[in-house]
Design goal:
By secondary structure, the chain is mainly α. It is built from 16 helices and no strands. It has two domains: about 190 residues, Growth Hormone, Chain: A, CATH 1.20.1250.20; about 220 residues, MFS general substrate transporter like domains (Growth Hormone, Chain: A). About 75% of the residues lie in helices and about 0% in strands.
Length: about 450
């Protein structure tokens, strides 16, 4: 029937779309981790080179709203998801070729690597932004937190699966093997994406918003979205909280080594404890929001609570810097991961829920704005965390005071984020009562 609402996706359909995130993670882990290590260890290049290349891949995320606008104007998301994955796959393969080329023609390899990492950033941004918009359209409101957990966990699965299999086939190492393995992974990832999204959007065509006016240029559309109090405030919340979230990544292991005397193996295990906490936090939010009532399952509650708990755990790490080896650091690091995971999945669930809060033909720009805030903040946070640690060491002449100062600053950022999340709620960023009343009427389809 014309104008009928499509059935929302069931769990099988959510997992199917999550395969796109698995494919995305498979290529990203090869380029940002494996190729990073090969440049530094096997090719004995300065670590700053892969660092700058990864920063380039994050910097280009600022263009996410532009790609979202393209999907708004065209009225379809699938071409942007598939096209983005094609660019990402070519970028990943190009990064491997560039690494091999550096061994004989360094500057030509660097030039190709710059192009490849630009393509990786473009591919991740275009595909990831439009995938979240598609999920927000096809997933019932009460299932969005769980859906956010599913796609995030499936991306992590892409990291783990690719790292294990590619690691096996890369030995004994040669640049030829690197190019071959990366090419195969990229080809499989692209094919998996095509299969995952095939027919999903067509099945929901009746519910698509009308395409944006073609004559509306991107900057005008972006200004209109930024003028929405809810959209702009949520973007600021995402940026501040993601800076705090990512700033700890590059300093937690050095902190454990310097203050607690952990060996490299022990500090790596500590990072595993944190990541285990992140996964547990995500699963906890998905479980509670699926089974509990509206109050306990509120994404706003989990976003605010996750930020406050993260601030508390970081404050405890500040204290740990002064106490040293006698402090129970592992439980605190697990608690930090748990709080981070709860906050992160609640924030992604809010993105999916709020992307339709405004003009329906601006969903791509809106999601792109939030994705740009997340991507840029993630890249900036790691850099700022490491730089702040070095600066504090110079000014305070004590590693203990330096780490305590940085962890305290991160805790303050999470407190600010909690206040911003509450402000988001006051701005009406949660769905309207009419939306809440309509959501339970939707019945999930089998796939």
């Amino acid at each position: 029937m014309a104008g009928a609402q499509p059935l929302p996706l069931g769990w099988l359909g959510i997992v199917r779309l999550g395969l796109v995130q698995t494919a995305l993670g498979a290529i990203v882990v090869l380029t940002t981790s494996t190729i990073n290590r090969i440049m530094v260890v096997e090719l004995a290049l300065p670590a700053v080179l892969p660092g700058l290349l990864v920063a380039l891949h994050y910097a280009v995320q600022v263009l996410r709203p532009r790609w979202g606008h393209g999907s708004d104007v065209g009225g379809r998301l699938t071409p942007w998801i598939v096209g983005g994955m094609a660019v990402l796959a070519l970028g990943g393969f190009g990064a491997a070729l560039a690494t091999a080329l550096m061994a004989t023609q360094f500057w030509a390899g660097v030039a190709l690597a710059c192009l490849a990492f630009l393509m990786i950033g473009i591919g991740v941004g275009a595909s990831g932004t439009c995938l979240l918009v598609l999920l927000s359209r096809r997933v019932a409101d009460e299932r969005r937190p769980a859906a956010a957990t599913v796609v995030w966990v499936m991306m992590i699965c892409g990291f783990i699966l690719t790292a294990g299999l590619a690691g096996h086939w890369l030995d004994p190492f040669s640049t030829t093997r690197l190019v071959l393995v990366t090419g195969v992974v990229s080809l499989i990832a692209f094919g998996l994406t095509c299969l995952a999204v095939h027919g999903v959007e067509a099945a929901s065509g009746a519910a698509h918003p009308a395409p944006a006016q073609a004559e509306t240029d991107f900057l005008t559309a972006l200004r209109e979205v930024w003028a929405e109090p809810q959209a702009s405030l949520f973007a600021i919340f995402v940026f501040v909280s993601m800076v705090a979230y990512s700033a700890q990544d590059l300093i937690l292991e050095p902190f454990a080594g310097t203050v607690f005397g952990f060996t490299p193996g022990e500090s790596t295990k500590l990072a595993g404890v944190q990541n285990g906490g992140v996964l547990a936090g995500m699963l906890l939010v998905a479980l509670v929001t699926s089974l509990a009532g509206p109050r306990a399952g509120s994404l706003r509650l989990w976003a605010v609570g996750g930020c406050l708990a993260s601030a508390l755990a970081l404050a405890a790490l500040s204290v740990a810097a002064f106490i040293g080896p006698g402090f129970p650091i592992r439980p605190v690091v697990f608690a930090l991961g748990l709080a981070n995971g709860a906050y992160a999945v609640a924030a992604i669930g809010q993105m999916m829920r709020l992307v339709g809060a405004g003009r329906p033909d601006r969903q791509g720009v809106r999601m792109g704005l939030w994705g740009a805030a997340q991507g840029v903040a993630f890249g900036l946070g790691g850099l700022l965390g490491a730089a702040a640690s070095d600066l504090a060491r110079q000014l305070l002449a004590s590693p203990v005071l330096a780490y305590a100062a940085v962890f305290t600053a991160e805790a303050v950022l999470f407190l600010i984020s909690a206040a911003l999340a509450l402000a988001v709620a006051r701005q009406g960023l949660v769905p309207s009562r009419q939306d809440d009343q309509r959501a339970p009427a939707l019945r999930p389809s089998p796939g």
